[in-house]
User: Which sequence fits this backbone?
């Protein structure tokens, strides 16, 4: 796909997600040599995807390794799966620009599962549910980051947290990322808000560094707020906002 000079700036997210074809990547890397704004934005998108993978990770239980090693002796090795020749040419076309790169998806899925190949039977459903939730989160965030009309704004909260909001009118979604977010404390959580002409509507919770898709409709909102609230959140802010950042336009 060819891109004119007027829209090559929109490829920063797709570049960070390794979702460009070879020609697009070459063009964008040439563009990066002269565009400081795109260099910074691509680096921030790469940091966001790394934080997303970290947020989805979990530590496997101590007994997992022993269980895996014991099960290996009883599991028959399957022959390699060779795709039919007719399916090969279409593979890259299906996945090239419609989703995040397979490498990123695999890394997040591996983090979510903790690298465990065999798990206790009683934990199977919980692990599968967590994997589905991690994949859904990845898909939702990636759709916004890779949207052609994705726009980004950066800020800093009163408690020192570094914040980023990426919004897409086409997706009608906005993504919030926090770094260096202090622990909220016992019985507390951070709550996000969408400011609709002075009326604050709940937009989700976040209690540690990571990335979340804001709930609610950001289309007619002017800003994103962050407050410290009781665990579970509040219907309206009960504390002074730590941040009120205008949505990117």
Assistant:
């Amino acid at each position: 796909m060819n891109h004119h000079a007027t829209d090559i700036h929109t490829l920063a997210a797709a570049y960070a997600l390794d979702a460009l074809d070879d020609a697009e990547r070459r063009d964008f890397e040439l563009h990066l040599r002269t565009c400081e704004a795109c260099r910074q934005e691509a680096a921030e998108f790469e940091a966001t995807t790394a934080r997303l993978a970290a947020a989805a990770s979990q530590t496997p239980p101590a007994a997992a390794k022993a269980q895996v090693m014991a099960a290996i002796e009883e599991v028959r090795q399957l022959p390699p799966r060779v795709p039919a020749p007719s399916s090969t040419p279409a593979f890259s076309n299906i996945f090239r620009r419609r989703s995040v790169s397979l490498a990123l998806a695999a890394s997040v899925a591996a983090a979510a599962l903790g690298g465990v190949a065999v798990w206790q039977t009683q934990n199977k459903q919980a692990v599968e549910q967590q994997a589905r939730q991690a994949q859904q989160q990845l898909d939702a965030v990636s759709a916004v980051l890779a949207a052609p009309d994705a726009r980004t704004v950066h800020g800093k909260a009163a408690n020192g947290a570094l914040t980023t909001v990426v919004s897409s009118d086409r997706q009608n979604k906005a993504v919030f990322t926090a770094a260096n977010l202090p622990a909220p404390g016992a019985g507390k959580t951070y709550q996000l808000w969408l400011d609709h002409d002075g009326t604050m509507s709940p937009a989700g919770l976040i209690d540690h560094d990571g990335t979340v898709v804001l709930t609610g409709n950001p289309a007619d909102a002017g800003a994103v707020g962050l407050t410290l609230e009781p665990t579970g959140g509040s219907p309206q802010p009960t504390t002074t906002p730590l941040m009120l950042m205008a949505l990117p336009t």
Remarks:
- The longest strand covers residues 188-196.
- Residues 151-246 form one domain.
